[in-house]
Specification:
It is a single chain. The chain has 258 residues and is α/β, with parallel strands linked by helices. Strands 3-2-1-4-5-7-6 form a seven-stranded mixed beta sheet. α1 packs antiparallel against α2 and α1 runs antiparallel to α5. The protein is elongated.
């Protein structure tokens, strides 16, 4: 992307990891309770040695995932290039004249993207669907949201006047569309709004070994690389680029198939 170096929009120290705690505090509370109960049982309840080792192992795993998930979240959301936006110029060939950003009820990216790109978006789309996205963490995030940019709610389809778009950003939102066919429909709708050489950039965690190691069972909320590629193909989108931002996050660059 040509032009001068962008003005980086930085998050406050520990802003990202603090939001993870705020939106998911029940899971962390339950994890702490499970770990403490297992440790207490192993220490004070008489039981076979094998049972003690199972409790100690379970408590160790719980403690590991409590700590590792927060450390990884701090790395991803506070320390990496992700929300410093330095990765954006590396994936764009030129500054898009017409770009769109998508979120699922919590917009943490439009302000930074606009600063990096040097111009406002054509539109910001909110794909939150209350009938499908029912997780308590999403509700807490939406209640906390302080919009810095007006959004157009479009849980059904993209507004018809959104056409000839050069670039679409979808950062940590499309995995919230849990039904495969619905996700395909959303992406096909987005693809139809692109110019011939337009791009969609999908940023997501994956359901893979790296995310399992640090997030434990929480990694099932993410989608596998295989599922993403099947979704892209079904939506008539080709993957023309793929890169990592930390070992836990992928950026997929997509182009509409002819």
């Amino acid at each position: 992307m040509s032009g001068s170096a962008p003005h980086l929009v930085l998050r406050r120290p520990f802003e990202g990891v603090s939001k993870i705690l705020e939106y998911n505090w029940p899971q962390y509370l339950i994890g702490c309770a499970v770990a403490m109960t297992a440790v207490a049982a192993a220490a004070f309840v008489r039981m076979p040695t094998w049972a003690t080792w199972i409790l100690v192992g379970g408590a160790s795993l719980a403690i590991w995932w409590l700590v590792s998930s927060l450390v990884a979240s701090h790395w991803i959301y506070d320390r990496s290039s992700l929300y410093r936006w330095t990765w954006v110029p590396t994936v764009l060939r030129e500054t898009p004249m017409r770009w769109v950003n998508i979120h699922a009820g919590l917009d943490e990216s439009t302000e930074g993207l606009a600063a990096v790109l040097g111009q406002p978006p054509l539109v910001v789309l909110d794909i939150f669907d209350p009938t499908e996205m029912t997780e308590p963490s999403i509700a807490r995030a939406r209640n906390d949201a302080r919009p810095t940019w007006p959004s157009v709610s479009c849980p059904g389809s993209v507004p018809v006047d959104v056409q000839n778009v050069n670039v679409i950003f979808a950062i940590f939102c499309l995995h919230e569309v849990r039904r495969d066919q619905r996700r395909i429909d959303v992406m096909a709708d987005l693809a139809s709004r692109l110019t011939t050489d337009g791009r969609i950039f999908v940023v997501e965690h994956l359901r893979d070994v790296a995310n399992f190691v640090v997030f434990g069972g929480g990694f099932v909320h993410f989608l596998s690389r295989r599922v993403w590629f099947a979704t892209f193909a079904a939506a008539a989108l080709a993957v023309v680029g793929e890169r990592r931002v930390t070992p836990f996050v992928r950026v997929f660059e997509l182009q509409r198939l002819p």
